[in-house]
């Protein structure tokens, strides 16, 4: 009986150990799920749109440049992301054999070969530090802003996603461009992936003069071929434009930089990537056309873009969170945001 009792106790102890292990596994799984939940849906929530607009109305006024803040952010971005060297894929930072990991997809990469290596510029083509930079978003807040002359006075102008610069918009958005982004989805939707005709694309690009075209060719696998076709189209037509491919390593580190500052989204907007680039390369940054709300400060409706009202995919970007971060930088004097009509002279109030 004793020996049978001993065996019985041993079995019971083993069952208890298994039970505790099972419970620990369940608790560990729950902890992982909770951590993932807070990572994707953090406790912090961006203020309501109305509260943000009231804050903007209270804070508008004379803007004071803060050189200490500008220097601090340039150092932070240099330390984390090194925009001077890494913002574009170059022969210097991406030699033959280097693996470029796609920043927008897991388990996809491109190994630089002789063919793709030949498409890269030698090294950073920008003469840094740049002086007064303008980063121009496409928000409908630009309509009737009369910011065109203000924008064109900047020494380096960045624009997002091949925006129209036709005569009807010049007074509000200006005419000059030094760098313009082009999302591969635009090549697909607007120009049929350049598979049938290239003339419409070539003609539409002339408005950007001799600027740089900045494309995320190595962000998502489906975007690589359209980006390369755009490169060859411009090269074959002896265009004055220079193609730059966004470095996926730079885009990834910039994403982590802003995630650590409260911007939680599947992907940052193109505009925030450009602002990050400008903060890392420019002595002074002014931002136009960044307004993610459907109502303006005058309580009138605002279209999503200054040229149309086509909305982006829901939950893809976190535009209000981005705006809050940029507005904090405006208040601190690190950059300047124009969110209404531009004053007739520099140094006026922010209307």
TrEMBL record:
<dbReference type="InterPro" id="IPR038578">
    <property type="entry name" value="GT29-like_sf"/>
</dbReference>
<comment type="pathway">
    <text>Protein modification; protein glycosylation.</text>
</comment>
<dbReference type="GO" id="GO:0006491">
    <property type="term" value="P:N-glycan processing"/>
</dbReference>
<dbReference type="InterPro" id="IPR001675">
    <property type="entry name" value="Glyco_trans_29"/>
</dbReference>
<dbReference type="GO" id="GO:0009311">
    <property type="term" value="P:oligosaccharide metabolic process"/>
</dbReference>
<comment type="pathway">
    <text>Lipid metabolism; sphingolipid metabolism.</text>
</comment>
<keyword id="KW-0735">Signal-anchor</keyword>
<dbReference type="GO" id="GO:0000139">
    <property type="term" value="C:Golgi membrane"/>
</dbReference>
<keyword id="KW-0472">Membrane</keyword>
<comment type="similarity">
    <text>Belongs to the glycosyltransferase 29 family.</text>
</comment>
<dbReference type="GO" id="GO:0003828">
    <property type="term" value="F:alpha-N-acetylneuraminate alpha-2,8-sialyltransferase activity"/>
</dbReference>
<feature type="transmembrane region" description="Helical">
    <location>
        <begin position="24"/>
        <end position="44"/>
    </location>
</feature>
<keyword id="KW-0328">Glycosyltransferase</keyword>
<keyword id="KW-0333">Golgi apparatus</keyword>
<dbReference type="InterPro" id="IPR012163">
    <property type="entry name" value="Sialyl_trans"/>
</dbReference>
<keyword id="KW-1015">Disulfide bond</keyword>
<keyword id="KW-0746">Sphingolipid metabolism</keyword>
<dbReference type="InterPro" id="IPR050943">
    <property type="entry name" value="Glycosyltr_29_Sialyltrsf"/>
</dbReference>
<keyword id="KW-0443">Lipid metabolism</keyword>
<feature type="disulfide bond">
    <location>
        <begin position="133"/>
        <end position="282"/>
    </location>
</feature>
<protein>
    <recommendedName>
        <fullName>Alpha-N-acetylneuraminide alpha-2,8-sialyltransferase</fullName>
        <ecNumber>2.4.3.8</ecNumber>
    </recommendedName>
</protein>
<dbReference type="Pfam" id="PF00777">
    <property type="entry name" value="Glyco_transf_29"/>
</dbReference>
<keyword id="KW-0325">Glycoprotein</keyword>
<dbReference type="GO" id="GO:0006665">
    <property type="term" value="P:sphingolipid metabolic process"/>
</dbReference>
<keyword id="KW-0808">Transferase</keyword>
<keyword id="KW-1133">Transmembrane helix</keyword>
<keyword id="KW-0812">Transmembrane</keyword>
């Amino acid at each position: 009986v004793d020996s049978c009792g001993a065996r019985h106790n041993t079995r019971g102890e083993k069952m208890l150990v298994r039970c505790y292990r099972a419970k620990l596994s369940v608790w560990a799984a729950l902890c992982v799920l909770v951590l993932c939940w807070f990572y994707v849906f953090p406790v912090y929530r961006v203020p309501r749109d109305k509260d943000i607009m009231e804050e903007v109305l209270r804070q508008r006024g004379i803007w004071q440049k803060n050189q200490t803040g500008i220097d601090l952010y340039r150092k932070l971005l240099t330390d984390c992301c090194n925009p001077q060297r890494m913002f574009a894929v170059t022969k210097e930072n991406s030699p033959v054999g280097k693996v470029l990991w796609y920043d927008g997809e897991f388990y996809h990469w491109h190994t630089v070969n002789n063919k793709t290596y030949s498409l890269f510029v030698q090294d950073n083509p920008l003469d840094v530090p740049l002086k007064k930079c303008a980063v121009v978003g496409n928000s409908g807040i630009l309509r009737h802003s009369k910011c065109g002359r203000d924008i064109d006075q900047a020494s380096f102008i960045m624009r997002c996603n091949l925006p129209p610069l036709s005569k009807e918009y010049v007074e509000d958005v200006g005419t000059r461009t030094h760098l313009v982004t082009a999302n591969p989805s635009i090549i697909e939707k607007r120009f049929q992936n350049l598979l049938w005709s290239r003339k419409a694309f070539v003609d539409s690009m002339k408005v950007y003069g001799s600027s740089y075209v900045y494309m995320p060719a190595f962000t998502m696998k489906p975007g690589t071929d359209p980006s390369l076709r755009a490169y060859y189209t411009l090269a074959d037509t002896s265009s004055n434009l220079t193609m730059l491919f966004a470095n996926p390593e730079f885009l990834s580190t910039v994403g982590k930089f802003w995630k650590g500052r409260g911007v939680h989204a599947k992907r940052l907007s193109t505009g925030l990537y450009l602002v990050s680039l400008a903060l890392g390369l420019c002595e002074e940054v002014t931002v136009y056309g960044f307004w993610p709300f459907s109502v303006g400060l005058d309580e009138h409706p605002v279209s999503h873009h200054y040229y149309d009202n086509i909305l982006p995919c829901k939950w893809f970007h976190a535009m209000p969170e981005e705006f809050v971060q940029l507005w904090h930088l405006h208040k601190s004097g690190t950059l300047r945001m124009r969110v209404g009509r531009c004053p007739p002279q520099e140094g006026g109030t922010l209307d």
